């Protein structure tokens, strides 16, 4: 321990965020530039170096949290970077995007605010890049074996980097025009600027990983034929089949899935459009869904200049304290305010909401178009009728209300991989009861040499689980090709987050 009394004498501090009025006028990340480094050493010193560090189990990557906390507290940033990269291929991603289940599992969190593990992780990663310590690590020799990875999200990228470094020749196939998957087109710029993704991709290219963009496996290329060209194939296409909302009026114009809306906003940042084809500018917006994707929509809507915005969450508003039925060390459901919710609260653009932008315990009954003589194009949504619900999801009598809405965004989560691309059928893959692709304990499918990694097999999950699965699937592929492997495998397909 760098400071044996750090957890007693140092309070938890988070880096300052830029003023709301400033940051909603641009798309840069919300924290003050340079605001983390002055405080991170003392925050790392709060780590107790526990005899049994539950943060290891809270994180599926098994990040060596106490070790790099101690190194940061002592100012040994380079060794901290080495320990961090030993378990995480992309800490600049997880340090920005992960909800930090490791902090929920921090032993200090039993009776005090947890160590700011995620912020320390991000500071280490950023310091490593700025100092030039993150360099390409090409293999010393090639194995002569080839692997195709389908999908360039975090699972596919992690698998590809591990297999390339093991000496295999790896090609990553991505149906979009740029690699990155949801990291590129799903995550808004204000949560993770794409320069972080681009420099990691440049490292992978320098190591030897090849990228084939604009190629849809199953549509542009037959998946079965692709299998014959490679010694192994990793399916890491994610869980992108979005859930629908089957209520009257769904056919009205102006109702879009979140993943129809968010990629267009990101494409503006990439320079593809001057103005997104779907924009919230000047419109009254309702976001249906209370999760992270809904919050991503909220921050994007605010930056596009919506007239008003309300986010509906069918669940009751959680409390601020850990509930008794979700004890430490599980990642409890408590009231959390994202940067986007903070912005909505301060800007006051959600007059219908209870707090920040959210209406809790609210279910959509139907969408309504313009009435006779009303302004607006025919067939376009003009309002959303909702009803309050109890803890069991039953409507509360007398709780119906109408929200003005000329843009509705559906952020209801995902049910598994898309089934209409041809990939599943061409490879003869099985789909389990959850809608995910079936695999055994070694990430292998019933098709020889075909493996599944990430959300495609696990179902909708977190970026940290995707990277962990990519690393583990890479170890399985390496063992299949070489007979043995030295690659780490932090998780199995059966592993699940800490739950009660």
UniProtKB/TrEMBL annotation:
Metal-binding found in the keyword field: yes
Domain spans labelled FAD/NAD(P)-binding: 146-317, 396-470
Organism: Streptomyces sparsogenes DSM 40356
One of the record's GO molecular function terms: iron-sulfur cluster binding
Pfam (any one): Fer4_20
Biochemical pathway: Amino-acid biosynthesis
Gene3D superfamilies reported in the protein's UniProt record: Alpha-helical ferredoxin, FAD/NAD(P)-binding domain
GO biological process, one term: glutamate biosynthetic process
Domain Dihydroprymidine dehydrogenase: 42-132
Protein keywords: Amino-acid biosynthesis, Glutamate biosynthesis, Iron, Iron-sulfur, Metal-binding, Oxidoreductase
Protein name according to UniProt: Putative oxidoreductase
Lineage: Bacteria, Bacillati, Actinomycetota, Actinomycetes, Kitasatosporales
